[in-house]
UniProtKB/TrEMBL annotation, chains A, B:
This is Low specificity L-threonine aldolase. Pfam families: Beta_elim_lyase. The lineage of its organism: Bacteria, Bacillati, Bacillota, Bacilli, Bacillales. Belongs to the threonine aldolase family. One of its GO terms (biological process) is L-threonine catabolic process. PANTHER family: L-THREONINE ALDOLASE, L-THREONINE ALDOLASE-RELATED. Residues 43-296 form the Aromatic amino acid beta-eliminating lyase/threonine aldolase domain.
Length: 362, 362
């Protein structure tokens, strides 16, 4: 077994992890459905109380007229951008170079819709008002991702959001929020979901990030926009006869974890500090602004894997299952704080970080 | 309450129905997951034992190299046709005028792929070899739906299928099977799934028709085709982090009901005969060739609704929740036989059909 495999194997053997809510297993579904009446009827192609009630609840949370539940954010966001493009009769949108749409969707937006993209800002920082004002091309819509996941979950200031929103409204540019992790950033902004969403024309929220559901997404906005989205949802094959396995679990875990986002944020700051106290280890951002951050290690990937695997083996606390090579002498992994961190005894945590620090110094 | 509403209300009040497996409620999910270990891990973006094992099982059933699980048949089939179009460098396909893609998908195939369609055969009959041979346009692929749902689930002969398959191979035309209800037609053909699928280049199978699962579909074919389909699945937003709620329930109900398709077929023939014995009632086809058929009533929709509602009220047996107007003096509804028919006491059935017959004569 090489170091990378040893890292994954030790992670999978750990009963406890630093991040997340626990293993993604069938228990996630069983727990969500435990208290749900067997006689409760399925949704049916987007209709029925199960889906309509949850959509109304999410629309209210996000302060929008309407909301539609989708199987995935990939589907919801491509559709949102397509609708704004049709609205403006312009097949061009702008987003961050590391947007999910640009790097994780096999170019679905371009292949399915022929929509061109303008990449805003540098890869290693968030989009600022100047980037938007400096655009030389007309676009139908700008997508902002809060937090910017691929750079450790960084955020622009709330004032920047207001500035971008004002500018887009003035110029007639649609503004869409990739809010996959929207609830996770509210404690930092000190705002409600509706206050953030008021700056955007449309919003997407995911149910398996901080909320820890099984899958699924909400797209919210005005009623006309959502009516159009339902037609595209049907075209995509996303208008399933039954989405309730995702909807009811989304609702269950939303109720369970939305109130804990503040705790995850505080825990993330504490955890990041523990990493930053280790030799050759730093987090991005240094002080997290949500429940997530990236951990950078000043060692080649194989070397770092050996050290982390040994910490995992010795403590039974899972740090990470993988490492991403940044360059020949640096690697990184992502950390998202969920329910598990708070349950770890402080003494066990201290020992794990002492071992990591020792390993890094050796 | 008008007659149409009365029909729906009485249907929903019935504890028992002529068709289907029972109410689509949360019990469907709970039953499927009852015996599944909580520690079993989720699939993860198309990988993991839960999804890979089921795909391999379905590939074997269908006699194909590989299979991929999709959230929906709409998604799976559009993707299949797109791949064959790319393969032949020709964005044109042929199918029946009442194909699901033509009438139930908001033109997804055309809107998302710009694929043109050629409609084969008349609306009221199945596609025959002559229709295929008589095509004046080149197409990349032909889609055949077995059974042809919108005309009561009619089927071409197996010899016709062989003829169309031979012709398509000779001419280099792809042949795709819309086998949403493939298992349901095997008893009539007296063939295995693999024997039918051998005639086609790609096949789609649904898990919430005769199988009665929650949702989901399998697309099967050769490995190269399926590799391409996974890229499109990602583009569509169908590559969910977790599809297991659909996969494990599909597997559970497949095991439960695949062996019963012969019984559903026999029951459908018996049930159709009961309808045909009633005054002014006939089935399409007269003798079913699967578990499904359409019931045609020689009365205006409102009148027929009153009679059927009264039968439902008096017997507690649900016939239908809706009626579709054919013309001013005729209406129809669809019947799909599942688990429930065999559980209805024959005496109750006789009484219900006597009441229907009496109502029709009055």
């Amino acid at each position: 077994m090489n170091a990378i495999e040893f890292l994954e194997q030790t992670f999978n053997s750990c009963e406890r992890q630093l991040g997340h809510h626990g293993k993604r297993n069938i228990r996630v579904l069983k727990e969500a459905f435990e208290q749900i009446e067997e006689s409760r009827l399925s949704d049916r192609y987007g209709t029925g109380a199960v889906i309509e009630d949850f959509q109304a609840k999410m629309a209210a949370l996000l302060g929008k007229e309407a909301a539609v539940f989708f199987p995935s954010g990939t589907m919801a966001q491509q559709i949102a951008l397509r609708i704004w493009c049709d609205e403006k009769s312009l097949k061009k949108v702008a987003y961050h170079p590391l947007s999910h749409l640009e790097i994780h969707e096999q170019d679905g937006l371009k292949e399915l819709h022929g929509i061109q993209t303008v990449l805003l800002a540098d890869r290693d920082r968030v989009i600022e008002l100047e980037d938007v004002k400096g655009m030389t091309e007309n676009v139908a819509c700008i997508l902002l991702e809060l937090p910017q996941r691929e750079i450790g979950g960084q955020l622009p200031s709330f004032e920047t959001l207001v500035g971008i929103s004002d500018y887009c409204r003035e110029k007639g540019i649609g503004l869409h929020l990739d809010g996959a992790r929207l609830l996770e950033v509210l404690p930092y902004y000190g705002k409600t979901a509706a206050e953030v969403c008021a700056l955007f024309d449309s919003v997407y929220l995911s149910f398996y990030k901080g909320i820890g559901g099984i899958a699924g997404a909400i797209l919210a906005g005005d009623s006309e926009f959502l009516s159009k989205s339902k037609i595209w949802k049907r075209r995509y094959g996303g208008d399933l006869i039954s989405l309730y396995p995702y909807i009811l679990s989304a609702d269950y875990y939303y109720e369970l974890r939305a109130p804990k986002m503040g705790q995850y944020y505080e825990d993330a700051k504490e955890l990041a500090a523990s990493f930053n106290a280790c030799h050759g280890v730093s987090t991005l951002p240094v002080v997290p602004v949500s429940n997530m951050f990236h951990v950078h290690i000043d060692l080649p990937k194989e070397k770092a894997a050996s050290i982390l695997a040994e910490v995992q083996r010795a403590t039974g606390i899972g740090f990470t299952s993988y490492l991403k090579e940044i360059d020949e002498s640096t690697c990184a992994f992502e950390m998202s704080v969920g329910d598990q961190y708070a349950d770890l005894p402080k003494e066990d945590l201290r020992r794990a970080f002492r071992l990591l620090d020792d390993g890094m110094k050796a």
